[in-house]
């Protein structure tokens, strides 16, 4: 039985059912294995300095959700789902993102937001290292795919400047390209013109973060599924893939460039 | 009071050099500061001035004291990078304000709509705000972008000045560069961080006591007028103990430093003597105290060491003992903590744009 390692936390939980169904339909002899590499407990562990021990292709965590280890050489694919790529974290401080911001500051801030996200706690900001996304791809001898967090749908994000949303997306792209991680951009059917996710896809009322089965089915149908199939069954050559979601995403980028 | 044979007979120890200086630890100079008033709990404290003022803001925030920050850094920018973009240094992203002329110019811009001319400087195809050239390390893409950023900043400065309860201002220099045609005053010499030096276009100024006084009084009057019925504003003045990096005045840099500090100290003293809303805090005296034998300065004899800053702040907090953790539970205090962290990391590396001059010195 060949294995796919699925890393992340709550979004893995949301996507799991549709992902398993997709694999059953499209790939024979593959099983999904979950590895909790995100979530608040791992975040707290990382913020306190917790780091994975690395031994060749083996990654070992002594704290966080629970002591755990994986040999990345055992898998045909490492699939990150979410993995702390939520642009909502940008808005947890007092910074006014609608002010004029230099491209230098924007780029530096966004890159940091992907590699070392920061959230505001009661005791002040807490920064934690997105170590799985940063280091696992270089260790794994197999392809790696990231399906980022669903675009938020809360009012703050919806009304945030397009330039900021695109800069965050670009930062994900840059961080991943450097590590040969294939990014699966959000399916355009699940994006509003403001690049947020329509609330109809929410898994539960009052939970503005997690999306339901329909959302994940579409991701797998439109974008992520073909990328997974190509990665495990195709001729993956290790070359970086470009995020080039056609259609409305590109229209928005063009619109913004022209503005 | 008992009678004495001479007018010095009943004076306290601090009135005498021997007991007040020679035999007193330079880290325990508590009698040197008798504050006119206490900074009220919850006061909106604004800081500005030359680079030494950054220490004051940082220590206040470390104590949990709320210091106004109208232009906070993005949470995603690491604290050690705040300074590179002019964040967490003062109450706004105005960078170092070395002279009272520069302070007045900023207030006129923010409160009267004055438009300083020749404020976009270029370097290597990038454009800088000449009035705060160190807040964008790589400059901006166009002069228009500089002006757009400045408009936002000046709007924030307006809020800062209108809403402040206490302004802590550190007088830093008397030397400055000015646009010969428009009178625009700059914090740095043209050609250092950006721009280029044209002796026909830029003139050197070394302000005198009366000019420092006039500019500060004009600043104070302007704020009073603009604030209307808002509560009276208080000022806490200090003089930076940091010597000049370089002088363009033709004198030896030591003489130039002595002149500059003497002028600023005299002006601060005049202001504090005449106006009950203005107090003077002697950070300059604490650092330059002969009893410290220069120990408060780093090996370059210019940078103030953390021990010196501690000695200064000990005196400050002894006098303003009520200030500790005034509003620790508020959201704004959390912002203060964020900035305190940034300040802690920057402790050994307080930036002075002025120090850029060293790169051009011999």
Brief write-up:
Chain A is an alpha/beta fold and about 260 residues long.
Account of the 3D structure:
The complex is a heterodimer of chains A (259) and B (362). Chain A has 259 residues and is an alpha/beta fold. Chain A has one domain (2-258): Rossmann fold (3-Layer(aba) Sandwich). Helices cover 39% and strands 18% of the residues of chain A. Chain A has helices at residues 10-26, 39-47, 103-115, 131-139, 155-158, 162-178, 213-233, 248-258, and strands spanning 2-8, 30-36, 53-55, 58-61, 68-71, 77-82, 118-121, 124-127, 144-148, 181-183. A five-stranded parallel sheet of chain A has the order 2-1-6-9-10, sandwiched between helices. In chain A, strands 3-4-5 form a three-stranded antiparallel sheet, with no helix packed on it. The termini of chain A are far apart. Chain B is an alpha/beta fold. Chain B has one domain (35-360). Chain B has ten helices and nine strands. A four-stranded parallel sheet of chain B has the order 1-4-8-9, sandwiched between helices. The radius of gyration of chain B is 20 Å and the shape is globular. The termini of chain B are far apart. The chains are: A alpha/beta (259), B alpha/beta (362). Chain A binds chain B through residues 89-90, 92-95, 97, 99-100, 102-105, 108-110, 112-113, 116-120, 122-125, 127, and chain B through 69, 72-78, 81, 85, 136-138, 140-141, 145, 148-149, 152, 334-335, 337-338, 341.
